[in-house]
Specification:
Elements lengths: L2 H20 L9 E8 L8 E7 L7 H4 L2 E3 L6 E5 L2 E6 L3 E9 L5 E20 L5 E10 L2 E11 L2 E7 L12 E7 L3 E7 L5 E7 L9 H6 L1 E23 L4 E6 L1 E2 L6 E2 L2 E8 L8 E7 L7 E9 L5 E2 L2 E8 L4 E7 L12 E7 L6 E13 L2 E9 L4 E9 L3 E8 L7 E4 L7 E8 L2 E7 L6 E4 L5 E4 L1 E2 L16 E3 L8 E6 L17 E7 L1
Parallel strand pairs: 1-34, 16-22, 20-25
Antiparallel strand pairs: 1-37, 2-14, 3-6, 4-5, 5-14, 6-14, 7-8, 7-11, 7-14, 8-9, 9-10, 11-12, 12-13, 15-18, 17-18, 18-19, 19-20, 20-21, 22-23, 23-24, 24-25, 26-27, 27-28, 28-29, 30-31, 31-32, 32-33, 35-36, 36-37
Length: 521
């Protein structure tokens, strides 16, 4: 070959590869996110973790399996008939049928086959000696609901007896499913026939009984409660579960200590808040998803123990596995303070030797000096800076992203960047390529991208169909995750919307549906 041509080809190849090396790395505002699917779980039976059940089809020996207490002189006729639990009475009777233990954050469901006559139907939670009894009762007459009451007894003394009915209650009939969502310091009661469950009762009972106390988890038991003047009730099934509630929010990927998303068993792992009604009613759920499809699955529920005798339902947590110390750790937001007027909202460090992703878990929690109206923390160890860093948002004339830093993971944090200009929610740190970026939702109808760790503006996230419209709130959690090379797409984002559940009364934060996006360059 001609030496001049060889030299020219060499310089051409050198220039080509040099130009490739000189190309700037991809900026996250250049990624195009395309919506793939959307789902809202509303007490979805497929998204529940069983705690207890009374299933008539499985019963042999009713009196031993599900002990019956007759609470008056007259006794109702209780039996299994045609694969249903039958309770029948021709005079005034009160009957309690045990069906399981007690969890103050469980969802209790009565699948009602039929209801005739007049009386009350609901739940009784009590210790074995009946020293304390907590009733939730639906009054009915010929299927029409005539009232919803909440009663607390200590011994024979009535501590509280009040109506908890919503406006929907007296418009509703007692049929289909009765769903009681217990929320630690509150509850919401629903009936469901053929469409969405309708809220018929709601209560905040923490001033009278704090069911978050460990003693109730250990000692209380759950009963079907029936009071009949006359009539016949048939029940298909009674269950208690850890459920997905009626909305999911605050979605954050579980990571390792350096912020790398945990891709375990071919699945990404997320914390999400299972929505109750308001604050402090939400529950910290753990979900998983195969990022190549849209198969979100409830895996567990986490509560938090500050060594004060309470099981606390903190949310907006970031959980990570610290590989060096072989411990599950994280940061959570102390929203349970809203149940006690004397407590202060703050961030908490959390820790556990048990893998908290599965079943029912309790992580130890400790204050670490970050007190105030601060939310949505994301923590990682920066092995270059040799510092622990927390991206979070603080209420500084609206929630604004800030960066905190410390030499130790659980103390001594100081602010090193922020607040940013715009409203911020769902703050998170993720790598795009080999470079970390900070993401946040906002009320500006944009998802903002900032540099790490100094929080300088980079741009906004590009989406074809964002998880909001003209009528909804936009303070979502971006939750961008970079996937390994062998996936059919490089990026995935799981977000939620902010549509509250219909029919609830008073302030409530009961959003939302889940939105899946795939990102490409």
């Amino acid at each position: 070959m001609n030496p001049r041509k060889t030299l020219a080809l060499f310089f051409l190849a050198f220039s080509f590869f040099n130009s490739l090396l000189a190309q700037p790395p991809l900026s996250p505002d250049q990624i195009k996110f395309v919506r793939q699917g959307v789902r809202r779980f509303v007490f979805d039976e497929q998204q529940s973790i069983p705690l207890a059940a009374l299933s008539p089809r499985e019963i042999i020996g009713l009196s031993a399996m599900y002990p019956i207490t007759h609470m008056g002189h007259e006794k109702a006729d209780v039996k299994i008939h045609e694969a249903q639990l039958s309770i029948q009475s021709k005079t005034d009777t009160r009957t309690a049928i045990w069906f399981g233990g007690f969890n103050p954050f469980a969802t209790y469901t009565i699948d009602l086959a039929s209801c005739q006559g007049q009386g009350e139907l609901g739940f009784m939670f009590a210790d074995a000696a009946k020293n304390e009894q907590f009733f939730i009762k639906i009054k009915y007459n010929d299927l029409q609901i005539t009232g919803i009451t909440q009663t607390l007894l200590q011994g024979s003394k009535v501590i509280k007896d009040s109506t908890i009915a919503t406006k929907n209650a007296l418009k509703s009939r007692i049929s289909g499913k009765i769903i009681l969502q217990m929320l630690g310091s509150g509850l919401t009661l629903y009936v469901q026939k053929d469409s969405l469950p309708v809220p018929i009762g709601q209560s905040d009972f923490g001033r009278y009984i704090d069911l978050r106390k460990k003693q109730y988890l250990n000692s209380f038991q759950s009963h079907l409660y029936v009071s009949q003047q006359t009539g016949h009730i048939s029940i298909n099934k009674i269950t208690s579960t850890l459920s997905s509630g009626m909305g999911l929010a605050d979605i954050r990927a579980i990571t390792y200590e350096d912020g790398e998303p945990m891709l375990d068993r071919g699945r990404l792992w997320y914390t999400m808040s299972i929505r109750g009604r308001a604050l402090p009613h939400h529950i910290q759920g753990v979900f998983s998803m195969d990022p190549s499809v849209f198969d979100v699955r409830l895996e567990g529920v986490i509560l938090f123990d500050r060594a004060d005798g309470l099981l606390r339902n903190e949310i907006a947590s970031h959980i990570f596995f610290d590989r060096q110390h072989k411990l599950w750790r994280g940061i959570t937001t102390g929203f349970s303070a809203y149940a006690h007027p004397n407590e202060k909202k703050q961030l908490l460090t959390v820790e556990s030797q048990k893998d908290p992703r599965f079943g029912f878990s309790v992580m130890s929690a400790s204050p670490f000096g970050v007190v105030g109206d601060i939310e949505d923390p994301h923590i990682l160890f920066d092995d270059i800076a040799k510092k622990w860093r927390i991206l979070t948002c603080e209420n500084i004339n609206g929630y604004k992203a800030i960066m905190l830093e410390s030499e130790e993971w659980n103390k001594g944090y100081r602010r090193i960047a922020g607040p940013v200009t715009f409203n911020s929610t769902g703050t998170s740190i993720q790598k795009i390529g080999d470079k970390r970026y900070c993401f946040s939702g906002s009320q500006e109808r944009k998802i903002f991208i900032y540099s790490y760790p100094d929080l300088k503006s980079v741009g906004t996230l590009g989406m074809d169909l964002p998880p909001w419209d003209a009528s909804s709130g936009t303070r979502v959690w971006p939750n961008v995750v970079q996937l390994p090379d062998d996936y059919p797409f490089r990026y995935v984002a799981l977000m939620m919307d902010r549509f509250n559940y219909p029919g609830l009364e008073g302030p409530n934060w009961t959003y939302g549906a889940l939105y899946l996006y795939h990102g490409y360059e």
